[in-house]
Amino acid sequence: MTKKFQITLADIAKKVNVSKVTVSKALRGHPDISSTTKEKIKQVARELGYIPNYMARNLSSNSSRTIGVIVPKIAHSFFSNVIEAIYDSAFEQKYEIILTVSQENAERELQHIRSLLSMRVDGLIISVSQQTKDDAIFQKIKKWGIPLTFMDRVINIQGFNSVVADDQGGAFSAVEQAIKVGYRKIAHFAGYTHINIGKERLLGYKSAMKKYGLTVRPEWIVNGGFSEEDGTKGFKTLYDSGNLPEVIFAVTFPVALGVYRAAQHYGLTIPKDIDIISFGNSGGLNQFLSPPMSYVEQPTIELGRKALELTIENVKQKNKSIPRTITLPTRLVLCKTCVN
Amino acid sequence: MTKKFQITLADIAKKVNVSKVTVSKALRGHPDISSTTKEKIKQVARELGYIPNYMARNLSSNSSRTIGVIVPKIAHSFFSNVIEAIYDSAFEQKYEIILTVSQENAERELQHIRSLLSMRVDGLIISVSQQTKDDAIFQKIKKWGIPLTFMDRVINIQGFNSVVADDQGGAFSAVEQAIKVGYRKIAHFAGYTHINIGKERLLGYKSAMKKYGLTVRPEWIVNGGFSEEDGTKGFKTLYDSGNLPEVIFAVTFPVALGVYRAAQHYGLTIPKDIDIISFGNSGGLNQFLSPPMSYVEQPTIELGRKALELTIENVKQKNKSIPRTITLPTRLVLCKTCVN
DNA sequence: GTGAAAGCGCTAACAA
DNA sequence: TTGTTAGCGCTTTCAC
Is the per-residue pLDDT at B1 higher than 80? Predict the structure, then answer.
């Protein structure tokens, strides 16, 4: 950073013939200063092209009006939508966002947390990576009293705000739909069940099965991951076993897509030979499939907005508010699968 | 931010019985300090859970190892891929990224530039909004000597690095393909031609037409915007005029999609009744269309990586390097349109 | 309504 | 090898 561009309060002060303090106050609209000098100071600041130094400001005021965000991925429609919502509401509330990406890597996530704390963000929003198991850093954050909100991907720890989608309810309604259509052999591609989203969706599946008196066959709960590849692989195994269900409820859209493609690869027709229902629609990508799948719609925008709102609220209340979990509703959207 | 968590150099210094400076140097691996005290200091720092204060560090060292990024959108596959690439290479090079989103709004863009300058980022990467016309701020940035790289969306101003895709070449090869297939009536949906990407792609279209001796009919250059809606609207106008071309080359994937859907809406079959070729494929979304369109592939990852690389290089050379424009190659990908 | 003094946590330059 | 002094640009406190 070159020197010359550093116009400081002192420069303005000298020019207007007042003290630095007066300038500082005037520029921040402090009521102390008379409107005449205020105007004069602002005018000169504009002329000089003054740009306040956040570093200095934050260092002395010990607050940054900045929220740190950590997500597992960016180039995934779910996250990119959530992120955009966070940015938009932050802009409205005049907060800055510092976004980091863990790439589903727990170690990288930890490094980013440290960086953000180093930057003295006022609060944190985090959607944990698939790998994240160690909660030591979160315990410290709790001890230090830094406002943190878990979003969508939460870790099992008390004392923090969290904002999640109604994963269980959404899964339930998807499976219920399959049952109402008349299916009895219902498989679930469950992804990782050590993460809340996997666990909750599995619970939703199970409770729907139970409610309608259907038996949950262990071989029809297919574990793996959340990616397309996992869907493909899982389907192949199932297909080779010669024991296909009537319908598959997939834990994420990529998994559903993997299944979809594998099924087509084996010459099966969707939904006639094998039916599918998905959690998520990949930001509309689903509409381009023929046939498009019925799916559980996720409240991406709301997740982002609510997470930011909660975090800022907590910052303002100096982390004294009672931790709560906000569950946002999902919605079943019927397309061309799992319908009569 | 609560006080108690602010472990400072002084705290460590007191405990180890050395001065702050020694601690500072030790923690940064400065060769001055003996390895014994270095180890001891690091040990204590770890115990105390010391987290350095970037604000203070950057304020006194007058550099931040941080690059500011401004993009028009996040929730668009092109940008989310570019952004992810920027984040990944920044992580490799131990730089921090501060990302902001203009939402295609010039005023918001300006505010973000100010914020980032306020934060004293070491350099800037910017992909300008559709609206951006005023170059005053860029002139100032040039004067101040702050490294800035334009990426993909550039503004017409000298003296900055830029990284762009070969828009003209890509457009040329797309149109050439249409011609080779045998089409003569070739329309171009051109979006905004005041922005480089629109302008360059239009040039590519024109030069291909010229090379093969085809006349460019003014009514077949359809201006508008870069969105799906613009494609739809443009196609409707064209359709109503009763004077449809054989093939449409669309400036962006969303525009192509708008055309695609409008054509289907009128009962036209693609590519039989009307053919289409697109610039961009929306991160693979194109593959879900039936038929998928042939398209010009954009070098998203390379754009991001190169932009960061160039910016950091420039930071290191204190903005003394000669400004250059890097044009990254595009690639024509043939699918089910514009083929024999 | 205005300003002087002190200090935020750190690093740089120079001494010892 | 270690420490002293000064200061980054700003805000806060308290006196005038």
Answer: no
Domains in chain A (CATH in brackets) are 9-52 (1.10.260.40), 65-164+300-328 (3.40.50.2300), 167-298 (3.40.50.2300)
CA A284 / C1′ C14 distance in Å: 64
**Spacing of B123 CA from D2 C1' in Å:** 35
CA A31 – C1' C2 distance (Å)?
12
C-alpha distance across the termini of chain A, in Å: 65
Q: Which of A51, A52, A74 sits opposite B83 (nearest CB)?
A: A74
Q: Are residues B54 and A88, on separate chains, in Cβ contact within 8 Å?
A: no
> Are A192 and A167 spatial neighbours (Cβ–Cβ below 8 Å)?
no
What's the rounded Cα separation, in Å, for the pair B76 and B207? 29
Task: Provide φ and ψ at B107, rounded to 5°.
Answer: -70, -45
> B interface mutation test: which of A3, A50, A66, A80 has the most B CBs within 10 A?
A80
Contacts of B224 (CB under 8 A, 6+ apart): B189, B190, B191, B192, B230, B231, B233, B234, B255
For A146, the token pair is 């830094």
Supply the DSSP string of B251-294, one letter for each residue. SSHHHHHHHHHHHHHTTPPTTTTSEEEEE--GGGGGGGSSSPPE
* Tokens describing residue A172: 């339930």
Q: What is the pLDDT of residues B204-253, one digit of tens each?
A: 999 999 999 999 999 999 999 999 999 999 999 999 999 999 999 999 99
Nucleotides of D under 7 A from a protein CB: 1-5, 7-13
Using the beta-carbon criterion (under 8 Å), do A1 and B84 form an inter-chain contact? no
Beta-carbon count within 10 A of A96 CB: 22
Strand C contacted by B290 CB (< 7 A): no
CA distance A249 to A278: 6
Cα B10 from Cα A228, distance rounded (Å):
52
Cβ within 8 Å of residue B329, ≥6 positions away: B165, B166, B169, B299
- Covered bases, chain C (protein CB within 7 Å): 1-5, 7-13
Chain B hits for A94, Cβ within 8 Å: none
Closest CA to the C1' of C12: that residue is B61
User: What are the structure tokens assigned to B157, written together?
Assistant: 């101003």
For residue B128, how many C-alpha atoms fall within 13 Å in the half-sphere facing its CB? 25
CA distance B210 to B179: 11
Contact criterion met (CB below 8 Å) for B338 and B294 = yes
How many beta carbons lie within 10 A of that of residue B10, not counting itself?
11
Question: CB of B95 within 8 A of CB of B314?
Answer: no
What is the C-alpha separation between B161 and B317, in angstroms, rounded?
Answer: 13
The pLDDT mean for chain A works out to 93
Instruction: Tell me the C-alpha distance between B62 and B54, whole Å.
Output: 11
Is A333 near strand D, with its CB below 7 A from some atom of it?
no
pTM of the model: 0.92
How many CB pairs lie under 8 A apart between chains A and B? 135
Strand D proximal to A13 Cβ, under 7 A: no
Of B5, B54, B285, the CB nearest to A119: B54
pLDDT tens digits for range B62-83? 889 999 999 999 999 999 999 9
Q: Which of A81, A91, A114 is closest, CB to CB, to B51?
A: A114
